[in-house]
Specification:
alpha/beta; five-stranded parallel beta sheet; 14 helices; about 45% helix; binds 6-O-phosphono-alpha-D-glucopyranose
Length: about 375
């Protein structure tokens, strides 16, 4: 009903705007008086968690992209190898799972059958399972060894938005918790990252406050038949998620690529007028990825692409090659996915709206797929 939408035209529009709070709420109440992380719904004993030698994240759809983002953070912080796998692929390929494997199942609904079956399969092989779930009392957390609930609140629109940013946040808490437990990081480092995380809701709000420009551009592109997305490092799963949103909501062919792959194939797709959305890493990052992605923008622009660029405030290098820039506030690299995904959600929703489509209930899709 209109009341449930709180004055918004769709649940998705409301849920997009709910995201600063969803991230903030997911962070609430996770530390004790000393400031150490406590995950009180984590019921696996600490000795077991100290001995795990591999993490496998299993999920489907948008939740799997949250897992891809988590891999960058958890490997960096904990020095534990992290694999991310679609639940339906994991189960049928004879995966290497032992009692030292920690499986992290991510699911908004907690009812996705493919993910549930993968959880059971992992447990049969002796793995411990932590689930990151939004829906209390659902099946996946009931069957897991431990649960870390995201506190996004009910997500009604079929296409996931606030659950996604909450999932990233929860995986980060898990990564920091493991780093604390296993002694991978000093207390001060963990505290510093928690402080960065706690600064994110206000930055998400700032990105959303700038949405009007994204909406205008989206409306001008209602006739697009194909849109490509490029990202690198944590921007890569965000490119995949941006493409998924556009397929789901606007029924436009969309594909996300790792920017480094451009020359290995996708650049052949570029012709006059091809829209390409590029997520640019921070120029303050250490590893020259910024410069590499700037050259990618130049390469596609030189071949006629229409370039829409998501970049950090102050990144003047992008302006020469961007037809449009969607600016986001400065943030540490690992925090940036929480910001860069927002314009992509707004873009897809607005474009779908301009085409007169049902944003909350796209054709052929279900909110929760409870069959295999
Ligand atoms: C469906 C939904 C997606 C969602 C996926 C996983 O395909 O349409 O939006 O990402 O299921 O759902 P889950 O509830 O497990 O996160």
């Amino acid at each position: 009903s209109a009341a449930e939408k709180g004055g918004y035209s769709s649940f998705m529009a409301k849920e997009i705007d709910d995201q600063p709070q969803a991230v903030g709420d997911t962070l609430l109440g996770r530390t004790n008086e000393k400031g150490d992380l406590i995950l009180d719904d984590l019921r696996i004993d600490e000795a077991t968690l100290r001995t795990i030698d591999k993490i496998i994240v299993i999920a489907c759809g948008t939740a799997a992209y949250a897992g891809h983002v988590a891999k960058y953070a958890i490997e960096h912080w904990c020095r534990i190898p992290v694999e991310v796998e679609l639940a339906h692929e994991f189960r049928y390929r004879d995966p290497i799972v032992t009692s030292k494997t920690l499986v992290v199942a991510i699911s908004q609904s907690g009812e996705t059958m493919d993910t549930l079956m993968a959880v059971r399969h992992a447990q049969e092989q002796g793995a411990k399972v932590i689930s990151i779930v939004n829906t209390h009392g659902s099946t996946i957390p009931r069957e897991s060894d431990a649960v870390l609930y995201t506190h996004a609140g009910p997500e009604i629109a079929v296409a996931s938005t606030k659950a996604f940013v909450s999932q990233i946040t929860a995986t980060y808490l898990l990564g920091l918790y493991l780093a604390q437990l296993r002694g991978n990081m000093f207390r001060d480092e963990i505290q510093a990252i928690l402080t960065e995380l706690r600064a994110m809701p206000a930055k998400l709000k700032e990105v959303l406050d700038r949405s009007e420009h994204v909406r205008e551009v989206a409306r001008s592109m209602a006739d697009a038949t194909s849109v490509l997305f490029l990202g690198r490092h944590v921007g890569y799963p965000i490119a995949l998620e941006g493409a998924l949103k556009l397929k789901e909501l606007a029924y436009i062919h969309a594909e996300g690529f790792a920017a480094g792959e451009l020359k290995h194939g996708p650049i052949a797709l570029i012709e006059e007028g091809q829209p390409v959305i590029i997520i640019v890493p921070s120029p303050r990052g250490r590893d020259s990825l910024h410069a590499k992605v700037i050259s990618n923008i130049q390469e596609v622009r030189a071949r006629g692409a229409h370039t829409l660029v998501i970049a950090e405030d102050g990144d003047t290098d992008v302006e020469a090659f961007a037809d449009e820039v969607f600016w986001v506030p400065q943030a540490p690299t690992l925090m940036s996915p929480l910001l860069t995904v927002l314009p992509l959600q707004v873009f897809a929703a607005e474009l779908a709206g301009a085409k007169g489509l049902d944003i909350d209930q796209p054709r052929n899709l279900a909110k929760s797929v409870t069959v295999e």
